Amino acid sequence: MQQPMFILAEGNERTHGQAAQDSNIRAGKAVANAVRTTLGPRGMDKMLVDSSGDVVITNDGATILKEMDIEHPAAQMIVEVSQTQEDEVGDGTTTAAVLTGELLAQAEDLLEADLHPTVIVEGYHEAARLAQEAIDAELLDIDLDDEILEQVAESSMTGKGTGDVTADVLAKQVVKAVRQVANGERIDRDDIHVHTKTGASSSATELVEGVVIDKEPVSENMPRTVEDATAVVLDMKLDVRKAEADTEYNITNVDQLNAAIEAEDSELRGYAKTLKDAGVDVVFCTKSIDDRVAGYLADAGILAFKSVKKSDAKALARATGAKRLGSLSDLDEGDFGHTERVSVKKYSDDELTFIEGGEASKAVTLFLRGGTEHVVDELERAMNDAVDVVIAALDKGGVVPGAGATEIAIADYIRSESAGIEGRKQLAVTAFADAVDSLPRTLAENTGMDSIDALVDLRAAHEKEGRAGIISSGRAGVIGDPVEHGIIDPAAVKREAVESATEAATMIVRIDDVIAAE
Length: 518
What we know:
This protein is an alpha/beta fold. It has helices at residues 18-36, 61-67, 73-89, 93-112, 117-138, 146-157, 167-182, 254-277, 291-299, 310-320, 373-395, 405-418, 425-447, 451-465, 491-509; strands spanning 13-16, 46-49, 55-58, 192-198, 206-208, 210-213, 225-234, 282-285, 303-305, 324-325, 337-347, 350-356, 364-370, 399-401, 469-473, 476-480, 488-490, 513-516. α1 packs across α3 (73-89) and α6 packs across α7.
């Protein structure tokens, strides 16, 4: 038989067979190990310093992996796993990364035992299906009232940097924010905004029933506060209109010049007059506002803002009930929005504008404070995760016990079902259960417990009581019922972690040839 020929460009490198598998698995395990110590309420933070000296301090898995600037292609797949987890459910990124690494570690042992990669892949997919069944069986039959949702939010924030304010206080604000925009319908995540500002302790964090924008009025002569305001959102310039075609005007005397200036001024005055006559109190403009228009608007007592970001304009429209207008012709009262208050507040050298209340309001803002940028950045990540998990609990299939209890149940169920699976695939299914066991084992390690003893005790308690997890207590941990301790997770977080970790691990295991260009 003639050997196959590979024609590669000069400088390309090829790794194949066991060497390729070993390289990919080692890379995946290394990435997973990098975030392992951040898992759980006693997880530690990572400090990441880039080439320009910028520092990020966090224990958020997705942030850590993104900031690490990983180059190995197989390791990048785990970064994608954490990012997918973040995008889909907002939490569980470290869980997904650690599970992927453990699945690869188990696959490495199976490959050394001469199990074919295809058999491993089939076994892992079968085990993932069983894991989803186990998650469904662990769903708690309870009403998702505010108390339960606060526990869900608090569980997601426990162990994360929240400054001088406790997670339970922030959890109440998160749930209130979600309830504010839910209104009996499917929740639109875009209606919940997070705005950060340094200069005060984290305990000054508040929920604003409306929108906060980083803008100041276009004129110092404008009012700083407007009550019971009629607002308009404009996607147009309040400036002199320019001809679409190249046009040249020949002015031969002063009268013609004065007439041109008067016509231009009349046009600019017309913007202010049109808005004033329509009863508008506040203008949010996504484009420029001429200085002369700003002066005329100030004379009319109208508060105006220019160069508002498109995302802010969308939020303002939702918050006030206004339509976004591209023209001031044929203004109708139905185009306007209404808000209880628009106020400009000064923070150090900066000014922020608060747009609060209004019957049509469908937007809220979690206004986060912190003493330093590092504090507010980590608080922002924690609050975003908390908002996402509360929404996931309401919109994506309920809640399950946290603290590793669901993982213990998953592993136990997979092992019990694996006995009915024929052939070598059973080995891969059992290995999957062992990989899932690594999650409560890691929780135990990070909590200060002996991981082996804790895992044995967890299994025994699960067998006896039906539910058992790692409960952080002081400097160590104890075995207990997580539901009794208010440790609850959205089922969607577990489902997504199992699904994305399985897909990434099986994709990596199937690779036996790597051709890399320099």
